[in-house]
Amino acid sequence: MKRLRYMFICTAALMAAACGGKKSETEPADVVVMFHKSLTALEFEQASGLCCEGKAEEYVASFENAYKEALAQDAAAAEIAAGMLAGEEVLVGETARDKDIRTVFYTIGDGCGNTKEKIAVLKKVEREWKIAEIKDR
Questions:
Q1: Is the pTM of this model over 0.90?
Q2: Which three-class secondary structure string do you get for the chain?
């Protein structure tokens, strides 16, 4: 009886250690929301950190370059536009699964009724979901 109780306690301890040590994974939809929040907050480095190398990084760089050009032409207008972007809403819809790729369908809204439907393709990179591509739907 003591031996059975000892085995039960050891098994329970091992199961608790295995479950407790597991890091919770950020879902692809959450990565998309974090990406857009970073981008609209003009935190381009943070947004790039959520991307794979390639098209998604180019997307961030083009956004950053457009902001810098607008800032150089009319700083006040660029700051107003940045403030408007900060109020942007990201509404996540369906997430499609295909092996190690997730496709997130979502809508960006400006709070004034204007929306744009987008698609984000994510891949697993070193056990984290990274955005590989952003495109219009």
A1: no
A2: CHHHHHHHHHHHHHHHHHHHCCCCCCCHHHHHHHHHHHHHCCCHHHHHHCECCCHHHHHHHHHHHHHHHHHHHCHHHHHHHHHHHHCCEEEEEEEEEECCEEEEEEEEECCCCCEEEEEEEEEEECCEEEEEEEEEC
